[in-house]
Design a protein that fits this description.
This protein is mostly helical. The chain is 69% helix and 0% strand. One of its GO terms (biological process) is negative regulation of transcription elongation by RNA polymerase II. It comes from Magallana gigas. Pfam families: COBRA1.
Length: 370
């Protein structure tokens, strides 16, 4: 059975990587497909057919996925874990769905991914699942963390965090007073800590630092307030353009040391580039190289950021913007093949805008790295 399944798993990873590196579409493509559409893929359907209603074969596939995730740290195995379960859910294979302790949790997360947001009702449901894990059943956290480690789940959590922080600003409330934000931080902690949890077999939620809520999230919120103020100020006649306040040393310390702070910063940077906020982008992009565990060079993040930067192509005519994107962020990581491939995708679309001397400098830099 393992020999039959193995080529399918390899094919699945290859397809995911192809969609991340493909330069044929400048629009963001990776997160656009709905969960229902993704699990119609040939690999997921064939795996579901091979498993059928056989609980033993299903458990075997899950064990393959856990082992491969541990061996490679590749998060796409976590995506497949969720997609296979939901494909069996679509086929109403109750023999398997009823005994998988992650079924209802995964179903709820799947609905959130479809909506690209975790609303307050689903937030309460998800919290109920996490709080309802009984003594002696803690090992379930390992599989729940794998479901959350799926890039599509983490993307939904990241987008929801930005929306909830905005909601706090609109209502003049503090992040620490929002039960939704507290749950999102718990979910981030579980997803980002999945590999360590499964590797160590210590099934408990990561301890959350109170300073995340009292210091870091308010700092992100203040950056968001500045961004809004600047946009409004630009519409007023005779107002001088406002600059951005550089992130503080404390902010940088959080980004360097805390995975949740690091991940939230990545999603803030995606938000400002999606909004084409040039000043905010120039302020935050140089911070990304400091992200804990070099998180800012992961393919799923790079793919999204490059897609939004392609939409800002006119800005690359200006040397200061080129300097921020290339010198401060992409070129320091160019010795990695994946970063170079994402850089090529960016250049494929924006090269007519980039000054010729800058283009030549990038090519020379890469040649020197070889």
């Amino acid at each position: 059975f393992g020999d039959e399944v193995s080529p399918l798993l390899s094919q699945y990873i290859k397809e995911k990587e192809n969609s991340l590196f493909s330069h044929e579409n400048s629009a963001q493509t990776f997160y656009l497909a709905s969960p229902k559409l993704r699990r119609q893929s040939e690999v997921v359907q064939r795996l579901a057919d091979m498993v059928g209603k056989n609980v033993k074969l299903y458990d075997m596939v899950l064990q393959f996925l856990r082992t491969l995730f541990l061996r490679t740290r590749n998060m796409h195995y976590c995506t497949l874990r969720a997609e296979l379960l939901m494909a069996l859910h679509d086929q109403e294979v109750n023999d398997i769905c009823s005994i998988d302790p992650c079924h209802k949790f995964t179903w709820c997360v799947d609905a959130c991914i479809r909506d690209k947001f975790i609303d307050s009702k689903r937030s309460r449901e998800l919290q109920g699942f996490l709080d309802g894990i009984r003594r002696g059943q803690e090992f379930v956290l390992g599989d729940l963390s794998m479901v959350l480690c799926d890039p599509f789940s983490m993307n939904t959590v990241g987008l929801s965090m930005m929306r909830n922080l905005q909601h706090c600003l609109n209502n003049e409330s503090l992040p620490r007073d929002s039960s939704e934000i507290v749950l999102l931080v718990r979910m981030m902690g579980l997803g980002l800590g999945s590999w360590d949890m499964i590797d160590s077999q210590l099934f408990r939620e990561p301890k959350l630092e109170s300073s995340l809520f009292t210091k870091f999230l308010p700092m992100i919120s203040s950056l968001m307030v500045e961004d809004h103020t600047r946009v409004l100020s630009a519409k007023l006649p005779e107002e001088p353009p406002l600059s951005a306040t550089a992130p503080s040393d404390l902010f940088l310390t959080f980004v360097k040391e805390n995975p949740i702070a690091s991940f939230t910063t990545l999603y803030y940077s995606l938000q400002v580039t999606r909004m084409k906020d040039r000043v905010a982008a120039c302020n935050i992009i140089p911070v990304l190289v400091h992200c804990e565990n070099e998180r800012a060079y992961e393919d799923t993040f790079l793919h999204s950021l490059i897609s939004f930067l392609i939409a800002m192509s006119d800005e690359f005519a200006h040397d200061d913007f080129c300097s921020v994107v290339f010198d401060d962020y992409l070129l320091p990581g160019i010795s990695r093949e994946n970063v170079f491939r994402h850089l090529l995708r960016l250049l494929w679309y924006i090269h007519p805008k980039v000054p010729q001397g800058r283009l030549q400098a990038i090519l020379d830099w890469h040649t020197a790295q070889q």
